[in-house]
Amino acid sequence: MNGGLIRPGRTFVDDRGSTAQLHGIGLHRDDDGTWYAWGEDKTAGGTFTAVTCYSSPDLSTWRYEGDALVAGDGDLGADRVIERTKVLRRPDGKWIMLLHVDTADYGYARVGFAISDTLTGPYRYLHSERPLGNISRDLGVYQEHGVWYLLSEDRDNGLHIYRLRDDYLGVAEIVTTLRQQNRPEIGYESPTLVRRDDRYYLFGSDLTGWSTNDNMYTTATDLAGPWGPWRPFSPEGSATFGSQVSVVAAAVDGGHIYIGDRWLKDDLFHSPAAWLPITLRDGNAELRWHDQWSVEELQS
Questions:
Q1: pLDDT confidence band for 298 (50 / 70 / 90)
Q2: Strands 95-102 and 110-116, how do they pair?
Q3: Does domain 23-297 have CATH number 3.40.50.2300?
Q4: Is the CB of residue 27 less than 8 Å from the CB of residue 34?
Q5: Is 52 helix (H, G, I), strand (E, B) or coil?
Q6: 3 state SS for 182-200
Q7: If both were cysteines, with which of 94, 111, 118, 130 could 90 make a disulfide (CB 3.0 to 4.6 Å apart)?
Q8: Can you tell me whether residue 86 is helix, strand or coil?
Q9: Are residues 270 and 17 in contact, defined by beta-carbon separation less than 8 angstroms?
Q10: C-alpha atoms less than 13 angstroms from C-alpha of 154 in its C-beta half-sphere
């Protein structure tokens, strides 16, 4: 992909000519307009190799900035699972990385924290926790008025929205917990949250393993709720165009971007991206297919 064009359903190639490891992405747009992304390096398949860092002027052409976090021992052992990396900037200038930390059987189910003086790293791993004692697998983050929130999938109790501590290195409290309408004992995984005008839009994927599904969204005017009914945002039966939501990101001009993964269970390294414009308006979210598009074309 080059020339600013994004072609959903294909992999990205970085400046080295290698398949960009942007799986389970975390995304940040810096003050100078440069996009930074952290992804799961799937060289070893499902277990941990590294968290890779890339930069881009247009979300199409990608420069490899290096490995922000690499395998070691303990929580970062090569036999562990490290997923859904998200990076936050703290008021003191430090950069905090949040990770889903797990064992191969997904029984560990914790949030990990790492820190760096620079955006690209390297990051120093600090610790992990089960937030307020709850299991935590897929995660997302959201920031508002200087406060960061953690979105965490806990299939024993639902999808939690937590407020992070002031140092971003742990959880302070639960804001609310959401569950599925048809299966109220569980929530959705792979959560992401954005705000448009006076409304919050929360997205998630059903728990169907490697199989894709019609991802859903719900809206509210307050993070604590009440939250509306869960609804699909892509054509019903499309399985979200064969993808799973990772992030919904705000672009510069007010438009929004759906960033999804097409997981190839037997070849995770080459799992392609399904990134598309998404329309958020008046409490409704709509995702349509585009063979190709560019960030410059986005409209609010």
A1: confident
A2: antiparallel
A3: no
A4: no
A5: strand
A6: CCCCCCCEEEEEEEECCEE
A7: 94
A8: strand
A9: no
A10: 23
> Which one, of 168, 164, 132, lies nearest residue 151 by Cα?
164
Asked whether 112 and 77 are in contact (CB, 8 A), the reply is: no
Strand ranges (DSSP E) for the chain? 23-29, 35-41, 50-56, 63-70, 81-89, 95-102, 110-116, 124-129, 139-144, 147-154, 158-164, 171-178, 189-196, 199-205, 216-220, 231-232, 244-250, 256-261, 273-281, 284-287
User: Is pLDDT at 292 greater than 50 in this prediction?
Assistant: yes
In the chain, which ranges are continuous DSSP H helix?
Answer: 239-242
Q: What is the distance between the alpha carbons of residues 148 and 87, in angstroms, rounded to a whole number? A: 11
Q: Is the full-model pTM beyond 0.85?
A: yes
Q: Quick one: how far is CA 299 from the chain centroid? A: 22
Residue 282: both structure tokens together: 């008046």
What is the spatial distance between Cα 37 and Cα 263, in angstroms, rounded to a whole number?
18
Tens digit of each residue's pLDDT (9 = 90 or more) over 132-178: 999 999 999 999 999 999 999 999 999 999 999 999 999 999 999 99
Helix or strand (DSSP H, E) at 151: strand 147-154
83 pairs with which residues across the strands?
A: 100
Confirm if 68 and 121 have CB atoms less than 8 A apart.
Answer: yes
Q: Per DSSP, what are the bridge partners of residue 96?
A: 88, 115
Q: Indicate the average pLDDT of the chain.
A: 96
Q: Which residues have C-beta within 8 Å of that of residue 44, sequence separation ≥ 6?
A: 78
User: What is the C-alpha separation between 98 and 134, in angstroms, rounded?
Assistant: 16
3-state secondary structure of 281: strand
Ramachandran angles phi, psi of 96, nearest 5° = -115, 130
User: Domain extents for the chain?
Assistant: 23-297
| 247 Cβ neighbours under 8 A, 6+ residues apart | 25, 26, 27, 140, 192, 259
Measure Cα distances from 295 to 43, 52, 105, 233, 249 in Å: 29, 23, 38, 20, 11
